[in-house]
Design goal:
Layout: H1 6-15, H2 27-37, H3 40-47, H4 54-61, E1 66-67, E2 83-85, E3 88-90, E4 94-96, H5 111-122, E5 127-128, H6 136-142, E6 149-152, H7 158-171, E7 176-179, H8 189-193, H9 206-209, H10 212-216, H11 226-236, H12 244-252, E8 257-260, H13 265-273, E9 278-281, H14 295-306, E10 311-313, H15 320-328, E11 333-336, H16 338-370, H17 375-381, E12 384-385
Parallel strand pairs: 4-11, 5-6, 6-7, 7-8, 8-9, 9-10, 10-11
Antiparallel strand pairs: 1-12, 2-3
Helix pairs in contact: 2-16, 5-6, 5-16, 6-7, 13-14, 15-16, 15-17
Length: 393
């Protein structure tokens, strides 16, 4: 298809032959389908947030008080959604955000591989999580020629940290995304009420169990004593990072370093001063801390503080219009999270690819209708904060 938005023409033409889409194109229907496909324990883990989930809900709803002003008499018969990031030419401004329970999202428990396959099918980069059911090397191979990023939960053991990073480098990942806000897990009532924490049940730990440094810490290999291996994982997970650690990371890897979880402009400025390669504005989708401000409402100040250093963004993105609003507020690339995970649940790689294509189609068509032929025009147009009264007919 010449443009992402051509997907809708394909759907309508298929309808003339009595063929309906296999998967939904909207988030609400997608979520309902996933609710029927997933086991309650996995659904709660993916769907749930921290506390009463106010921040999680605000992340999504806050996009509604940002608006775009259309421009007319602009030739948008050709649109360009491509970007350059980390020296890579990428066909679109979206990427698949890291989700630690991806591996459990498909019936065969190979959801990480399905996500990477969806990346290969769409050209949308996959940010692979440290928490996975498949080794990071196999995940990178499944993504084919589409570049991927590796998200790191920093272990307390520095040798294990170095080993994971070296493996990511050797596997061909193009950036190291260091998560800052998850050295301890936030208060998640849905999981607590069912006493369910997947990692303590031995799930999504394959990157540890396959790591030579981690295995050297064990008296017996994981395949012989899973309980001991899980306890060893719990003992090494979650180093508390400070600004002093950034120089160490820069000394041990040649990969671009991205700090995930930056929401305050002062932290963005400090990250730039420490020489990081990108800022990642995210509040972990409302899963780690409740009572915060919606991530999209913090994005503009973070972008301004980051200056020429690119800002990635996620949290609450549910549609193509959300993507364009985040780009209008200055994001360089926008992470898609729960939507593609639900796609995995209902259709594996094909389901996730369909979700990504649908989001890109909506984004492309919004640009066409609003008079934005490229992402530079989106950034120039910006987004306007809309007061509640402005929504009245």
């Amino acid at each position: 298809m010449a443009h992402y938005g051509d997907l809708q023409t394909h759907i309508y033409q298929a309808g003339l032959r009595g063929i309906l889409p296999d998967f939904p194109v909207d988030f609400a229907t997608l979520e309902k389908r996933a609710e029927n496909a997933l086991a309650p324990s996995i659904l709660n883990y993916v769907q749930g947030g921290c506390g009463d989930e106010h921040t999680q809900r605000s992340n999504a709803s806050a996009f509604h008080h940002w608006g775009m002003v259309p421009r007319m008499l602009v030739d948008c018969s050709t649109r360009d959604l491509s970007i350059e990031l980390f020296g890579l030419g990428l066909p679109s401004p979206i990427f698949m955000a890291p989700i630690g329970v991806n591996g459990e999202m498909t019936q065969d428990r190979r959801g990480d591989m399905a996500a990477a396959t969806a990346s290969a099918m769409t050209g949308v980069p996959f940010c692979a999580s440290t928490l996975a059911n498949s080794p990071l090397e196999e995940v990178a191979e499944a993504a084919g020629d589409t570049p991927g990023f590796f998200q790191l939960y920093t272990p307390k053991n520095p040798d294990l940290t170095v080993s994971l990073i070296r493996r990511a480098e050797a596997a061909g990942y193009k950036a190291l995304v260091i998560t800052l806000d998850t050295w301890v897990t936030g208060w998640r009532p849905r999981d607590l009420n069912t006493s369910n924490f997947p990692q303590l049940r031995g799930k999504v730990l394959e990157n540890y169990f396959s790591d030579p440094v981690f295995r050297s810490l064990l008296a017996r290999p994981p395949e012989e004593d899973i309980a001991a291996a899980v306890q060893a994982w719990a003992a090494v997970f979650g180093k508390v990072l400070t600004w002093d650690d950034i120089a160490w990371f820069k000394s041990i890897t040649h990969l671009p370093i991205v700090l995930k979880g930056i929401c305050h402009p002062d932290d963005a400025r400090r990250a730039v001063d420490h020489g990081v390669d990108a800022i990642y504005c995210s509040n972990h989708g409302g899963r780690q801390a409740n009572g915060g401000i919606a991530a999209i409402d913090m994005l503009g100040d973070v972008v301004k503080a980051a200056g020429d250093v690119p800002t990635l963004f996620d949290s609450g993105v549910r549609s193509g219009s959300d993507v364009i609003k985040a780009l209008a507020l200055g994001a360089k690339a926008v992470g898609i999270g729960r939507p593609y995970a639900y796609g995995l649940a209902i259709g594996g790689a094909e389901g996730a690819a369909h979700v990504l294509r649908s989001i890109l189609a909506e984004a492309d068509l919004l640009m066409a209708v609003n008079g934005y032929p490229d992402l530079a025009a989106v950034a120039q147009a910006g987004a306007r904060r809309v007061a509640a009264a402005d929504h009245r007919a």
